[in-house]
Design goal:
By secondary structure, this protein is α+β, with helices and mostly antiparallel strands. It contains 6 helices and 13 strands. 22% of the residues lie in helices and 29% in strands. Strands 1, 2, 3, 4, 5, 6, 7, 8, 9, 10, 11, 12 and 13 form a 13-stranded mixed sheet that branches. Helix 1 (2-24) crosses helix 5 (146-153).
Length: 280
Amino acid sequence: MRRNRARTLRISAVAAVCISLGALTACGTAESPLSTIEKTSPTEPVTEPAGSGLDENVRNEDLDVGELARRAKQSASGLKTVHVVADIVSDGKAMRLDLRVDRGSEDFQGTIQQNDVRLDVRRVGSDMYVKGDERAYRSLVGTVDGELAAKLLAGKWLKGDVNSEKLRGVRSITTVADPGAALKNFPEDGVKLPIETIDDRRMIPLTGPPGSNNGKVYIEAQGGKPYPVLIVSKGASNSGSISYGDFDVPVKVTVPPAADVIEIPDRTSSSSTPRPGSTA
């Protein structure tokens, strides 16, 4: 009986964690904290002319705002991998994301943290993996059986299909991995502000028309490709910062050991018992 109860509890605990993940990753599914930098009626993203190269001898700070935004979007669109760190407050909920993302395969690995809950996350192909420590699972389960459930799940990777509705929030967090997202619909009357020095690097802030918002996207000021490297926003419902770096540094995501993996049961298999390393 005790063994059956433990198995039943494990299923219940996994289900509870999945439900909680939806709330935990709410910031990941919210609109970009820099959405206020765009036009109120977004247009289709501009298609860059074929073969339009970047003259690396031209200083980015000498470009007008329209050309600088165009070049920054073009530079960002060609990135294969990126390291993104986001500190976002969305509807009063604070979250920190630290991810290394392969933008081609959409594989990624990193961490999500909100308050005392810190989760490791990975995507390999169509498989999504989420792992927390005992404290994280105890917070997520939040039931009278939370202590035992946390001990059962602590250190285990929960595995689900990338298209699972239960993992929709986790899947969506990579929307922050596009450095050019805040410039896709950059307004024609946007403004190039005076250069700022941040962490000993000269940056060019771009923002929307005067009085429209408090968002800024920072572009590298030196010559070469003008990558967007920092987004800062102070919107009514979304605020925070998103930084980008390690451009085109290879990202290798490994599959966790089978013995440390517990399958997330789907709706039709709620009566089944998830087993370490199970693939069914």
